[in-house]
């Protein structure tokens, strides 16, 4: 009904322009708004109807003109001001008096009633919207027109929306104090490039309904809708904030059956659009396939309740506010904007969560690498200290075979074990560089390893290891040479003792025989042979001394098989002593035998002489 009434008046205005009844060049005639402005506004028909039935005073004209400036969400502030200036031109009462008819008076009264009804919806919606933001500072209003009059709540609302501190409100309840506080709020809006030329502080303090609604709508436009920017498919920004919001709704509800959002009025009546927006972002809250277009009240009630209970969005509208022939566009925009901001914030939180998660993952990864560095550094330093303790020891195996095994183990360490640890040392340097790079990329403080685990500390420990390794290698080679020398001495000793043993056994056998003969010549021959044996034995004493020297040297050097050496030496010495005793005894016996044989010879000579003499 409202649209048909507006269209009929628009057609009448346009036809009068065609007939020349309204001269657009005549400054005494009012300049009517364009058809687009008439379609979205109730203010201009009210001007027409009021001119038919009553005389407008200056205050009423100002109220109507300001309502006209705030009526269309498609117009920015500059366009609203130009429209307002056009509406403030003088009206020729003579012309309108000739056109006043009873049918038009009825239409105008109907339009005014619808406008009042729309004002009531806007008041309820705006009041809830204001309270949803004032709740952050524990404030609340009950009447939009009265509770904003002192300027205190208006100031708190602007502080919440802008995040800035406004001048402190003046204490006091007098009108002058209220005017001063509202002036501060309006001045702040002007600093935010919000045009309020036709709204003064006295209008708000006086509780002017339509100008108060217009002020709140302007604030919503500035702080809730103007910030919306959506890129189109061709990567171009939309022309206005309202178009951006409409495009966002269309993008989010694309693909949902029976949802085709083309405006912010009738397309929302069945409630499917609200449910589609919620289902797009939170499919767990709504079973969209069970909704039907015919059950609009249920759809709206469900969407509003879910948004309030699960999303925390204030229930700015009731189903009866939307499920009407002509829903209020501003109220729906105000409510849909809360959806946009919530889901945009949710998306931002998800993105931020992913970003924080990535940062946490990087921190965890960095912490893991740091722990790995600490563990590897500790293991490497422990290995270095343990290895230094092992290779610094000067205790070697007391045998050639043992020293050779130690040398083989040392060679294995140098060629196999040490290169692996050297690679680990290089990996530690790379690991520390990786840690520092990650921390630098995350704008974090550089990592400083614990005392003793710095790369410089590891390098110093490695230098001590190499020094000990060099000393170990030199000592092992010296010990190997010594053991080889001892082994040669032992072999020489065994060879000589074997020869000496054979010689001693042979001579002991010779001197043990007493076959001296039975006559003096034989005994004398045996004596000479015995003297030869004694001479040979005397000359052999030097060779026995060589064996003793070899044994003493090996004993001095700590030959591992020195007991066997000493046993053989004692055996040789025993055999040598025995041989000398045997030689000495044999000589004694030879000498006795020789003396006996000489006695026998003398006796033979004596007998022969006696026989000769006889």
From TrEMBL:
<feature type="domain" description="Calponin-homology (CH)">
    <location>
        <begin position="120"/>
        <end position="224"/>
    </location>
</feature>
<dbReference type="Pfam" id="PF00307">
    <property type="entry name" value="CH"/>
</dbReference>
<keyword id="KW-0009">Actin-binding</keyword>
<protein>
    <submittedName>
        <fullName>Spectrin beta chain, non-erythrocytic 4</fullName>
    </submittedName>
</protein>
<keyword id="KW-0677">Repeat</keyword>
<dbReference type="InterPro" id="IPR002017">
    <property type="entry name" value="Spectrin_repeat"/>
</dbReference>
<dbReference type="InterPro" id="IPR036872">
    <property type="entry name" value="CH_dom_sf"/>
</dbReference>
<dbReference type="InterPro" id="IPR001715">
    <property type="entry name" value="CH_dom"/>
</dbReference>
<dbReference type="Pfam" id="PF00435">
    <property type="entry name" value="Spectrin"/>
</dbReference>
<dbReference type="InterPro" id="IPR001589">
    <property type="entry name" value="Actinin_actin-bd_CS"/>
</dbReference>
<dbReference type="InterPro" id="IPR018159">
    <property type="entry name" value="Spectrin/alpha-actinin"/>
</dbReference>
<feature type="domain" description="Calponin-homology (CH)">
    <location>
        <begin position="239"/>
        <end position="344"/>
    </location>
</feature>
């Amino acid at each position: 009904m409202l649209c048909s009434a507006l269209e009929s008046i628009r057609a009448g205005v346009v036809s009068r322009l065609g007939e020349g009844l309204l001269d657009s060049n005549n400054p005494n005639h009012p300049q009517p708004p364009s058809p687009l402005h008439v379609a979205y506004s109730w203010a201009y028909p009210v001007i027409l109807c009021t001119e038919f039935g009553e005389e407008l005073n200056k205050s009423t004209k100002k109220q109507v003109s300001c309502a006209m400036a705030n009526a269309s969400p498609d117009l920015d502030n500059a366009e609203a001001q130009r429209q307002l200036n056009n509406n403030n031109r003088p009206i020729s009462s003579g012309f309108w008096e000739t056109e006043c008819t009873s049918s038009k008076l009825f239409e105008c009264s109907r339009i005014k009633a619808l406008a009042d009804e729309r004002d009531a919806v806007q008041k309820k919606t705006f009041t809830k919207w204001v309270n949803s933001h004032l709740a952050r500072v524990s404030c609340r209003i009950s009447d939009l027109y009265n509770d904003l009059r002192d300027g205190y709540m208006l100031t708190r609302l602007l502080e919440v929306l802008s995040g800035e501190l406004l001048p402190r409100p003046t204490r006091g309840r007098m009108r002058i104090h209220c005017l001063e506080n509202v002036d501060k709020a309006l001045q702040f809006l002007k600093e935010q490039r919000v045009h309020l030329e036709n709204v003064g502080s006295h209008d708000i303090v006086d509780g002017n309904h339509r100008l108060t609604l217009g002020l709140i709508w302007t604030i919503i436009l500035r702080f809730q809708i103007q910030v919306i920017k959506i890129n189109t498919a061709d990567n171009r920004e939309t022309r206005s904030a309202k178009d951006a919001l409409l495009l966002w709704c269309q993008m989010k509800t694309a693909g949902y059956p029976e949802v085709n959002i083309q405006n912010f009025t009738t397309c929302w009546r069945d409630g499917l659009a609200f449910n589609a927006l919620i289902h797009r972002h939170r499919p767990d809250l709504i079973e969209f396939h069970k909704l039907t277009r015919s059950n609009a009240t249920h759809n709206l009630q469900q969407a509003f309740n879910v948004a309030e209970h699960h999303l925390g969005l204030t229930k700015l509208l009731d189903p009866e506010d939307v499920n009407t022939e002509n829903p209020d566009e501003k109220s729906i925009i105000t409510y849909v904007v809360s959806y946009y901001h919530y889901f945009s914030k949710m998306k931002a939180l998800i993105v931020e969560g992913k970003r924080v998660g990535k940062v946490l993952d990087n921190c965890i990864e960095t912490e893991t690498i740091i722990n790995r560095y600490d563990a590897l550094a500790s293991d490497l330093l422990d290995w270095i200290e343990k290895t230094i303790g092992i290779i610094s020891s000067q205790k070697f195996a007391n045998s050639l075979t043992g020293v050779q095994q130690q040398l083989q183990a040392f060679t294995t360490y140098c060629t196999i074990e040490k290169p692996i640890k050297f690679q680990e040392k290089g990996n530690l340097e790379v690991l520390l560089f990786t840690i520092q790079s990650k921390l630098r990329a995350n704008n974090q403080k550089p990592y400083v390893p614990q005392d003793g685990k710095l790369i410089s500390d590891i390098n110093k420990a490695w230098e001590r290891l190499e020094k000990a390794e060099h000393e170990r290698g030199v000592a092992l080679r010296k010990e190997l040479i010594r053991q080889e020398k001892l082994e040669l001495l032992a072999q020489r000793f065994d060879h000589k003792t074997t020869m000496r043993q054979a010689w001693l056994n042979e001579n002991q056998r010779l001197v043990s025989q007493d076959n001296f003969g039975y006559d003096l010549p034989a005994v004398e021959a045996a004596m000479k042979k015995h003297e030869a044996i004694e001479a040979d034995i005397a000359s052999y004493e030097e060779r026995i001394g060589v064996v003793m020297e070899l044994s003493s040297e090996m004993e001095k050097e700590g030959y591992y098989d020195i007991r066997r050496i000493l046993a053989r030496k004692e055996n040789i010495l025993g055999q040598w002593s025995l041989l000398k005793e045997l030689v000495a005894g044999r000589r004694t016996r030879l000498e006795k035998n020789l003396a006996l044989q000489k006695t026998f010879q003398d006796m033979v000579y004596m007998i022969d002489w006696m026989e000769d003499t006889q």
